[in-house]
């Protein structure tokens, strides 16, 4: 464990990904206390002002401070992505563990359900769920979670099927260990690295998908600031010189998604030495 932690700290790509993520989290958490501007306050006299000392990211078409809205958007994007990642991990992971350990009819039924969900492209599935349940944050989250669950399921099911035939697991079963004990003490600890890698990837997927749903009007609705919605609002002014309206939320989405993907890729390289791409030593 200590050796792995040392590799993570010394890896420049991992350090960059963690640094970007830390900055965005800091903006979301500390931003409201440092920049005390109401992101919903309308002042038409200050509409479409370019970035300045008074408004670091300019103002929008009704005079709202874009930086304040960017901070709120960071809170929304990071909070929703974390919620989707945690819920997807719990639901998909538990179902994968159950299917892999019990096998038989339970595994068959759960696998066919997950295959049916995977038959739909993730974004299309999230959009369909959001349309069916009605636009809004909760509907969008349900759609993204539903799209993410099969990934955890297939990953954890495969890991359990591999581990359940290991000698130490067979020995524990022969000594009378229950299924719950096998999961807690012999299987789940061996899948932590796999779960972390998948969670990092799902976090980036959640950020991009929630932004896409907001962009097409199926996600979080105005006036709540959300990066995808902010980009949509800025498109109307992109050709008239007000570039800041869509640029800054777009950079936020890009940075958050890239940081999550970089962390996932480097974790995969660290925990999978067979890939040949791992960190040396």
TrEMBL record:
In the UniProt record, the signal sequence range is none
Q: Its principal location? A: membrane
ABC transmembrane type-1 domain residues are 78-264
Q: Which PROSITE patterns match?
A: ABC_TM1
Provide the alphabetized UniProt keywords. Cell membrane, Membrane, Peptide transport, Protein transport, Transmembrane, Transmembrane helix, Transport
Would the keyword Protein transport be found if you checked this record's keyword annotation?
yes
Transmembrane segments annotated in the record for this chain: 12-35, 78-102, 123-153, 195-220, 243-264
| Superkingdom as given in the UniProt entry | Bacteria
What Gene3D superfamilies does the entry give?
A: MetI-like
Q: Does the keyword S-adenosyl-L-methionine apply?
A: no
InterPro entries assigned to the protein according to its UniProt record, in alphabetical order:
BP-dependent_transpt_permease, MetI-like, MetI-like_sf
Query: Where, subcellularly, is it found?
Result: Cell membrane
Report the Pfam families cross-referenced here: BPD_transp_1
Indicate how the chain sits in the lipid bilayer. Multi-pass membrane protein
Of which family is this protein a member? Belongs to the binding-protein-dependent transport system permease family.
Kindly provide the name given to this protein in its UniProt entry.
ABC transporter permease
């Amino acid at each position: 464990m200590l050796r792995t932690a040392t590799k993570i700290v010394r890896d420049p790509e991992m350090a960059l990904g963690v640094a970007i993520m830390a900055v965005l989290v800091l903006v979301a958490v500390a931003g409201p206390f440092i920049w005390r501007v109401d992101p919903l306050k309308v002042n038409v006299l200050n509409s479409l002002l370019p970035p300045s000392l008074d408004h670091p990211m300019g103002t929008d078409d009704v005079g709202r401070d874009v930086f304040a809205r960017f901070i709120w958007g960071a809170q929304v994007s990071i909070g929703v992505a974390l919620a989707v990642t945690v819920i997807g991990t719990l639901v998909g992971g538990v179902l994968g563990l159950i299917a892999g350990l019990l096998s038989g009819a339970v595994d068959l039924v759960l696998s066919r359900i997950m295959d049916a969900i995977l038959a739909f492209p993730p974004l299309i599935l999230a959009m369909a769920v959001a349309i069916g349940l009605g636009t809004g944050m909760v509907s969008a989250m349900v759609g993204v979670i539903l799209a993410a669950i099969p990934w955890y399921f297939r990953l954890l099911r495969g890991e359990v099927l591999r581990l359940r035939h290991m000698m130490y697991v067979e020995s524990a079963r022969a000594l009378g260990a229950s299924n719950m004990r096998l999961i807690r003490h012999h299987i789940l600890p061996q899948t932590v690295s796999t779960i972390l890698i998948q969670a990092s990837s799902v976090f980036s997927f959640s950020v991009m998908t929630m932004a896409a749903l907001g962009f097409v009007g199926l996600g979080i609705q105005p006036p709540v600031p959300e990066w995808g919605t902010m980009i949509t609002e800025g498109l109307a002014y992109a050709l008239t010189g007000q570039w800041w309206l869509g640029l800054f939320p777009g950079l936020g989405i890009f940075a958050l998604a890239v940081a999550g993907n970089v962390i996932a890729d480097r974790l995969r390289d660290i925990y999978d030495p067979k890939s040949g791409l791992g960190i040396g030593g």
